[in-house]
Structure formats: structure tokens, C-alpha cells
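Here's what a typical entry looks like (2-D-hydroxyacid dehydrogenase):
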Amino acid sequence: MTISRLGVHTSVEELFPPAVLRDALTDAGPTVRIVETDDELAACDALVTFDYEESFLQADLAWIHSILAGVDHFPFDALAEQGTLLTNSAGIHGDSVGETVAGYMLMFARGLHTQRTNQLHQEWAYPPWDAAFTLDGESLCVIGLGTLGRAIAMRADALGMDVTGIKRTPMPIDHVETVYPPDDLHEAVAEARFVALAVPLTDRTTGLIGESELRMLRDDAYLINVARGGVIEQSALVDALESASLAGAALDVFETEPLPDESPLWGMDNVIVTSHAAAANREYYRRVAVLVRENLRRLDANESLTNQVV
């Protein structure tokens, strides 16, 4: 299969200007254009996009590439029935997400989130004598040891942390001392000071962390979510934070995005809220371009695609 007309959907502007990706692909083979309208879409064989729109099905595209790793908003069955291939951008965010999680843990350990709030109020305050700690010797459980989870584990190990994790097939992983199967979730998180979620949103992981799991966490534990909002039962998390049965949380993803103004999470001193930005990186478009180029080559050679979902 040869792609002769490739579209870059305007929705990618959520993460970078469409023109920079178009320009990075100008010598990739097909004619590359930025598309927005249905008429422009109809003139394409394939599409690189951030959003999903029903018009994509009507355009009868041969291939759609999502610039996101998460593609749970795409209609897999409908795409498969029509014969449209779907690929995602999994595997390109390990360093940026890993560093973000390291940053969250350092902020909590060193009290930097509190100091930042103090700065906004021009308040000069030394932290309580027993509040600050170092990450060396602290424990982290990483739930999901794919690209993101392994990158988190590597950085935590470098900071001197004791790292455990959960993987569907519990095989040895570099920088992880113990790998638990999913059925041992409660045991795995029970002794961890930090718990980081790095799993895709699937039927298995929706609501993975609910009231019973939160009860298993230490009252001085911190929960970090760089997976998807639906992995946590958000109301149960709010209850745990309000009752002080959890020390704090760093959340990059939420059940509803943007996080609604009325959410109590905004006003919690022990919560770090970021705007689904853990993967932010000025090199993002270049990494997407590498994936797109490789799959253009594979399509032309009738080979299986990298990161094929459908």
C-alpha cells in the first residue's frame, strides 16, 4: 500500500503547530497538507491527528496515526470494519514522563509545592522540622511497566529509591526489585511511600484504584497519575485526601478534562495539578514524524506497522 496524500489534521495544534509536523514530513514521500474541512480530508489517503471526528470514517482513509499514545476515544470496531488502520505514538514519551514523575516526587519530598505557594503569598516560612525528607531509601511502586513505567523506575532507582512494580506478565525488569502480577495489587502498594500509575486505559484498568485500593495505601503515601483519569475513581480519591488518609497526590490526568472549576482538587494544598502535560516536549513533533516516516515505509513494503492498534 502506498500513501500518496497525507493530511496533518489541525487538531494537532493542541500540542504543536501543524506546520512544523508538515514541514518535517515534506520529503517523506507523499504530498503532505494541513487539513481541517471535510473536503480537505476527502482528498487524503491517510491522516495524522490529535482528535477523532466521525468525518474520518466517512473519508474512508487507509490509515490514521494518532499523535497520542492513548486512543481509547477511537471507534476500533468501526475502523476495523472499514479496513482503516490505526496506529498510535506509544513509546516516545518515556524520558519526559519519567522526569515529570521524578519532579513530582522531589516536590513532595522537599516541600517545593508548599514553598511555591508561600512565594505567591510573600510568606517566608521554614518547613516544620519533620516535614521534609529525601527520596534516597524511600519506596516507589510503579503500576504498569511499559515504556512510561520503566522510564519512571529508572529515574527513581537513580535517586536511590527502592522500586517495585506491577506488570501483567511479571518478568524481571531493569531498575525494579520486585515485579508483582496484577492480582497482587493490594500487597504491592501497601508499603510504598509513592505509587505511580502508568497503565493504558482499558476495560481492565478502568477504576483500577478505588476506595478499597486507597485504603491499602499508607497514610503518608503519595499517589501519582500520569496514566488516564479513568484509572482512578476520582470521588474516592477526593474523599481519601479530604480525610487525610493519604498524604497527597500529583495528577496530570482527570476523569473530565480540563479539570472543572468546581473540582475540590484545585484548592487542596497537598495536590499538584498539571494540565495533561507530562509528555510535553519541544521534540514531540519530531518524534511523531519518525514514527510516521517509518510506517509510510512499512506500508509501501507491505510490512506490519509500528504501534498498530487496529
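The domain at 94-273 is CATH 3.40.50.720 (Rossmann fold).

More examples are in the samples folder.
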